[in-house]
Design brief:
alpha/beta; Glyco_hydro18_cat; single chain; Glyco_hydro_18_chit_AS; TIM Barrel; about 20% strand; glycosidase
């Protein structure tokens, strides 16, 4: 069956996503930076990183633990944020940066998936339980049925073949989505491929596309010096995944990721072009921790986020 209608679909920019909590710095970032939220955009997601696996002899156990600062990004702060900004969702990113945090499960499929489901549920319920404490007090910011809205699969290194990755992660996504205890907390599932693990993520998407809402492709990991090269890669990825309505373009403000890999101006120009052609549903930025600190490239905090969101507003 042809999927040309998905590849050639007309899409408007509806979503902006920002990774946050992935580093300890800066000390000034003690809360969600609400000042960068454009309320006219349909969806604004903060993605908390990371829910990271414990490892034994380099193998993943399926037991995930929180690595972000819970005081900075607490349940009460999420609730307050959602009360004041109706377009906000908060997602937990599962996986991690660096070769020391690969996808490489220690156990057989059923055991690993069961452990992963239980530990991820615990991360989500921990937020919900903290929120219930506020619901029972006079200081409740706002009553919510759910505080976490979904998960983001974000392993930058994968030490298995594509079928193993797809089967393990796809089975986990299915179980989490079917879990009655999480029926209101798994509204959003995204995946975060880059060039080096594209084969595994593409297989996962093709096998479980009905369960995956967004593809956060890390364009910032590739050498793309011109807007035309960026747009060409985006168009090729649309064909690879068979859809443009779910494919988001990612850029980084992290100085540890060389700006020479993708030219900032080229990325902005490319996004502007794609939005003008009604070909780009959204953008994500890695990451708020670095964006909060002025530097030579970004002299004002969150400069790139504001520039990119203005492209949405101009449409």
């Amino acid at each position: 069956m042809s999927h040309s209608h998905l590849i050639n679909a007309v899409v408007n920019p509806i979503i902006f996503r920002e990774y946050i909590g992935v580093k300890d710095l800066p000390a000034s970032l003690v809360d969600f930076p609400a000042e960068i939220i454009n309320d006219s955009i349909e969806q604004f997601h903060f993605i908390l990183g990371f829910g990271r696996e414990d490892y034994e002899n380099g193998k993943g156990t399926g037991n995930f633990h929180r690595t972000w600062n819970i005081e900075r990004f607490s349940a009460a702060k999420v609730a307050k944020l959602k009360k004041e900004h109706k377009n906000v969702k908060v997602i937990i990113s599962i996986g991690g940066q660096g070769k020391q945090y690969p996808f490489d499960p220690k156990d057989a499929l059923d055991l690993w998936v069961t452990k992963a489901e239980d530990s991820i549920k615990e991360l989500i319920h921990d937020y919900e339980n903290h929120l219930k404490q506020f619901n029972d007090s006079a200081n409740c910011p706002c009553p919510f049925d759910n505080i976490i809205d979904g998960i983001d699969i974000n392993y930058e290194y994968i030490n298995t073949d594509k079928d193993t990755f797809s089967t393990y992660i796809g089975s986990l996504i299915q179980k989490l989505k079917k879990d009655c205890d999480l029926s209101k907390s798994l509204n959003v599932v995204s995946i975060a491929p880059n060039e080096h693990v594209q084969t595994q993520y593409r297989q996962l998407y093709l096998d479980y596309k009905s369960h995956i809402d967004w593809i956060n492709y890390k364009f910032y990991d590739q050498a793309l010096p011109t807007a035309d090269e960026f747009v060409t890669l985006y168009s090729n990825l649309v064909i690879d995944y068979g859809t443009r309505a779910k494919l988001l373009a990612g850029v980084s403000t992290d100085p540890e990721i060389p700006n020479t890999k993708i030219n900032r101006d080229a990325f902005v120009a490319g996004c502007k072009s794609l939005i003008g052609e009604k070909s780009l549903p959204g953008i994500f930025v890695w990451n708020a921790n670095n964006s909060a600190s002025p530097n030579i490239i970004d002299p004002n905090p969150y400069l790139l986020e504001r520039v990119l969101q203005n492209l949405f507003a101009a449409e």
